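JOB MANIFEST
job_type = single_chain_structure
chain_count = 1
residues = 195
[input]
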Amino acid sequence: MLPEEPEAKALLATMLYAEARRSARRDVRGCYVPIDLQDVALWDRSQIRDAEKLLHACNRSGPTGRYQLEAAIQSAHIARRLSGANCWPAIVSLYDHLVALTNSPVAVLNRAAALAEVAGPDVALAELRAIFTDKRILGYQPYWATLGHLNLRAGNIETACEALRVAIGLSTDDAVRQYLRQTPAVLKAILCHPQ
């Protein structure tokens, strides 16, 4: 209804970025594949081009809003994978703006995950302390999965196992649950520290 509205264009761009990666999110056996392990040859380049055009158009049209920031983050992740460029500092910066605009615990979580790639897992874990008691995040499966993986990277095996068990329990997607269970570091941690 508002085709020239920058935020409407940005929302459509975000949807196109996500849809462009659909066929790469599962392997031939139906197992979940995170973005860093996806086969970029399976990404729909036409949808990515359309998303990029929309993002550039909405950036010329007016002030930056939430959906423009979210689309820009998706664009940076795609550029990072396609070009091999280190886009992590730009992704963290975009999340800084998104957190300032929305005060969303999910934005804080995603920023921490990106920050781990720039400054390491300990710095990212320190950032997550800001949302640890936020009731909106405590039942959010990606929070626990991220907490688990960051703690594994930091060498906090027992804490990682606890978080990953919660993440597995909160997973509603069998493929994601299997991915969490079969990640080599997760298997090792769970075997070394059984429940």
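[summary]
The mean pLDDT is 91.
DSSP finds ten helices and no strands in the chain.
exit_status = 0
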